[in-house]
Amino acid sequence: MDPLLANLLDLHYELKNNAIPLTIGGGFGLFLKRRMIEATGERTLLTRLPEPRATNDLDLFIRAEILADLRQTQCVKDAMDRLGYEPVEEAKFMQWKRQVIVGGVKQEVKIDLLVGPLGEYARQMKITETRVRPKGKIELHAHRTDEALAIDSEPLPVRLSGQRSTGAQHEATVFLPRAFTYLMMKLFAFNDRKIDARKDLGQHHALDLYTIVGLMTEAEYGQALEESRAVADNPKVTTARQVVASDFAAASGLGILRLREHKLFRPDIQVNEFMAVLKEVFSV
Predict the structure, then answer these.
(1) By C-alpha distance, which of 276, 99, 114, 102 is closest to 181?
(2) 3-state class of 95 per DSSP?
(3) Mean pLDDT on 169-176
(4) Long-range contacts (CB closer than 8 Å, 24 or more residues apart) made by 249-252
């Protein structure tokens, strides 16, 4: 995970004078959450977790209020330009890549730019089915992730310290989605990929769902129950509930099968406890 940490610290350093918060999702966000839990020694819902899965993607959420502001979005674009990021052709201006040398080894890292529900800021943006950008001319877009409910509301802060890709030491505070928001995103991602052989049939997302549940503290579990009930009638939550019911509510469900198929699955993985938590959070 060193190249991703170095790149995250690079970007935070470049934006340090702009007060632009960085929220990290995906597999790397779960790695950061796991590292934080190990440091604090807090008790979590599950005790048996798979090894962290490798990834070269950094899922970076830009807050809707930032993306609605052309000047602030341009600050993000300028920082990425200074770091040498180039757009990925298949998802131009939403995905970016960069070659870095970490520990003497050249590696490619990728940043996926995303944004959660737009709310009151939607009128200040240019919006398509999948893309969002501020009004005005700018070659930086974010992928719409409307299922990431409340991602900008009280995310979990995590303090980082490490080396930038230059070797210089840097400290940063970044943010992680709360557990319920993370579950929503991963359920939608799994549903999109569960029959797509090009995307490992959603196995990574099934494993991530288990890890999200496993890393919940008792307080986070209670919070997830409250948040789910508060937005129970939201259409996105209805869809997530259907995914849990069809794919994660029984040992024969496709989601559980995909979890078992993952190369990091172990016989001691607490499958029954995992299913019970998902069903309770989503009232299945």
Answers:
(1) 114
(2) strand
(3) 96
(4) 249/275, 249/278, 249/279, 249/284, 250/275, 251/275
pLDDT band of 124, cuts 50, 70, 90: very high
Residue 19 above 90 pLDDT?
A: no
Q: Residue 200: what pLDDT?
A: 85
Q: Which are the contacts of 144, defined by CB distance < 8 A and separation ≥ 6?
A: 114, 115, 118, 127, 129, 130, 131, 132
For the chain, the structural domain boundaries read 2-176, 179-281
Chain center to CA of 220: 17
Model confidence at 43: pLDDT above 80: yes
Burial 125-142 (b: 16+ CB within 10 A, else e): beeeeebbbbeeeeebbb
Please tell me the distance from the alpha carbon of residue 110 to that of residue 87, in angstroms, as a whole number.
9
Whether the Cβ atoms of residue 201 and residue 192 lie closer than 8 Å to each other: no
Query: Which of the two residues, 199 and 143, has the higher pLDDT score?
Result: 143
193 three-state secondary structure: helix
Say how far apart CA 24 and CA 237 lie, in whole Å. 22
Q: 58: which strand partners?
A: 111
CA 259 – CA 208 distance, rounded (Å)? 9
